[in-house]
Amino acid sequence: MDVYLSLEQQPRHLGQAPRSPGGCLEAEEEGTAPEDGTGGPPGDSNKTESSLQSLLKFVPTDYASYTQEHYWFAGKSIVIQESIESYGAVVWPGATVLCQYLEEHTEELNLRDAKILEIGAGPGLVSIVASILGAQVTATDLPDVLGNLQYNLLKNTLKCTAHLPEVKELVWGEDLDENFPKSTFYYNYVLASDVVYHHYFLDKLLTTMVHLSQPGTVVLWANKFRFSTDYEFLDKFKQVFDTTLLAEYPESSVKLFKGILKWD
User: Fold this and answer.
1) Distances (CA, A) of 247 to 18, 107, 240
2) Amino acid 198: pLDDT
3) Positions of the chain with pLDDT lower than 50, given as ranges
4) Exposed/middle/buried for 15, CB within 10 Å: 0-12, 13-18, 19+?
5) 175: helix, coil or strand?
6) How deeply is 49 buried, as exposed, middle or buried, from its count of CB atoms within 10 A (0-12, 13-18, 19+)?
7) Is 0.70 topped by the overall pTM?
8) 165 touches 133 (CB < 8 A)
9) Is residue 96 helix, strand or coil?
10) Cβ–Cβ under 8 Å, residues 17 and 72
């Protein structure tokens, strides 16, 4: 199914986040609890920050500069700490496309309590949105990315979501049976955005996608198509996954695919 969406329908990246009752960050800033009652009492922001720090297992990389970027999804203001010093510390176009799709198809995808793993989570926007929408999320990436990833996840989900997202190291193609044994780990959805570009690990990426897919698992992959290698990967993806084009944004060259592993 080919769906062509206009520029006006593309996701929102806000220079300054709008205010909204019930948003987690807004509640902290204004000293009020979210409408669902999961937030703390007035003046609890220091306690929340202390709780966040106590839960951090990974230390954010000490980049020279970070920026605070604002997004708006699932009725929440989301603030992401980003740095242009690392590919893994920036929100790329495919991530906002995937977030919008999750937001607009929450009921259809049955995300509440769904088990989700994100490959190459970067600064964590997709995992945050999936968590806000009720999913049980495991966000994965390379070791040097995990500190900032976990910081962003906790900052935007602590006391705001039914399930606190988990952060795990995942090096594509390495130690998959040991770290993600099929007998123990099952995911309803595997999410990935802008993980395909000009690098030397595309075969290992595909191997990882296949390993994480079991009967019933759906891969949702959004990507900005820039290079011939992107299309070569798509051809290989189609060889092992029954593939559907869910959406395409011609203005930004982003395509969103659904893949279900072939079992014949």
Assistant:
1) 27, 18, 20
2) 83
3) 1-11, 15-23, 25-43
4) exposed
5) coil
6) middle
7) yes
8) no
9) helix
10) yes
